[in-house]
Design the sequence.
């Protein structure tokens, strides 16, 4: 068998690895979610959207009047960053892990929801080794001589963008 045949065989993988029953039993989304969505698609997505915090609640789930352009929840106002960070702290989950990073050489960084609020982000930005000390520089700092950003770089840039969007 040639090397190209071996590579082509990788496209023929048909095994399925089901999760353990204990894992699926504790999952947030159960198999019934598919039936709910099929029975009332717009009602299903409205229910999912209402699990988020809306600064101005939406009254219309979908506007399809300019197909093929869909407008979901167009009359509502939401702050995605607030939903990613603040609501978890306000609902008592501030000490839970929001982001856990493991680098190639074994370095790790863990951030809780509380650490990612405005107060904690300033500490995070200042403590980030090898990164710019000013928070605004995190999004726009050069990638360096290697020409590629590490996942750690990207984590800090995402956190900065979330913090900017919270205001």
Sequence:
């Amino acid at each position: 068998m040639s090397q190209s045949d071996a590579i082509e065989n990788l496209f023929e993988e048909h095994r399925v690895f089901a999760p353990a029953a204990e894992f699926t039993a504790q999952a947030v989304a159960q198999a019934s979610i598919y039936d709910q969505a099929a029975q009332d698609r717009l009602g299903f997505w409205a229910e999912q959207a209402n699990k988020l915090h809306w600064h101005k609640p939406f009254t219309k789930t979908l506007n399809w009047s300019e197909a093929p352009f869909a407008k979901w929840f167009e009359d509502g106002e939401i702050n995605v960053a607030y939903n990613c960070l603040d609501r978890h702290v306000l609902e008592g989950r501030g000490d839970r892990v929001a982001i856990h990073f493991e680098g190639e050489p074994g370095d790790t960084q863990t951030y809780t929801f509380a650490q990612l609020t405005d107060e904690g982000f300033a500490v995070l930005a200042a403590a980030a080794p090898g990164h710019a000390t000013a928070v605004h520089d995190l999004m726009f700092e050069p990638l360096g001589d290697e020409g590629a950003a590490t996942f750690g770089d990207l984590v800090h840039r995402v956190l900065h963008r979330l913090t900017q969007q919270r205001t």
Observations:
- The longest helix spans residues 151-165.
- DSSP finds nine helices and four strands in the chain.
- The chain has a mean pLDDT of 77.
